[in-house]
Amino acid sequence: MSNRSDPAARDTVVQAFDSDCIVLPIESILPVKAMEKTVKSSHKYRQIAASIREIGLVEPPVVIRDARDANLYLLLDGHLRIEALRDLGQVEVECLVSSDDEAFTYNKRISRLSPVQEQRMIAKAIERNVSKEKIARALNINVRSLSRKVQLLDGICSEAIGLLKDKFCPMAVFDVLRKMSPLRQVEAAELLINANNFSVSYASAILAGTPQAQLASVQTPKRLKGMTAEAIARMERELSRLQEAISSIQDSYGQDHLHLTVVKGYLRKLITNDRVARYLAQHQPELLIEFQKIAEMTSTLPSEAA
User: How many whole angstroms from its chain centre is CA 92?
Assistant: First the structure.
């Protein structure tokens, strides 16, 4: 019988992996999913292979013992790494042994490096006297591309960097932000985050709506392909109104959403009570309809007109 009701059992943290890694023959590791034929031509695979070739394996694959054969292991995470090692002529690999056969965590809950985090990692490696050529080979990029990554945050204020440190923004977005003043960079970063849109086109639209006084170079007029000065001015006004609307919603959104959650729960209990629902249906049918709508609401924002 389950001992979840036992407080001592609930307080015990179960270790998800063996304490030590083990070295296994690659041939004894069985993949749990088939790889596409084109995977070896992908940028990700080439980068992994280049990294292993240059500095060795950084992140050990995760395996679990096969319940049917003590000599075999099932591969939960690291299919590309294993394939790259095999192509590089390796016959053994150090693995992390899991006690659970779920693979969801590795596929959906492991965070990869954002551009800001990658830039900091590269900068620290250079500070430790690792040559740019060696880093470039490990990342499977040329030195020129590496230098661009190193300079990614040049001209970006610390507040904007802090906002975007864990966001997956294309490098070109930082090129757009660099054209704005520090205060406008922070505002632009907040707009990107609020919209959950980190595309270059959206960042460029924010730049287009930025007043001349909020550009990094106040003296240099904005030149946007296919847009007249009047169109730019109109976009600036519209974007300003949009920012004001977003700010007004943000001020009350948290409290409104909390109220909605409480009200939804209360009304759902009411309308699922047979006696209450029957009474409302007989005497106040329009009220019952409105209660049902509120119970099904997912947002406090007014719905768009059809």
Answer: 33
DSSP 274-293: HHHHHHHHHH-HHHHHHHHH
Name the pTM for this structure: 0.57
Does the structural domain 16-108 have CATH classification 3.90.1530.10? Answer: yes
Q: Give, for 64, the enclosing helix (H) or strand (E).
A: strand 62-65
- Dump pLDDT digits (tens) for 52-82: 988 888 889 999 999 899 899 999 989 999 9
Q: Give yes or no for a contact between 211 and 236, defined as CB atoms under 8 angstroms apart.
A: yes
CA distance 166 to 171: 14
How many angstroms separate the CA atoms of 15 and 74, rounded?
A: 19
List the structure tokens of 133. 């050529």
The boundaries of every CATH 3.90.1530.10 domain in the chain are 16-108
Radius of gyration over every alpha carbon of the chain, rounded to an integer in angstroms: 28
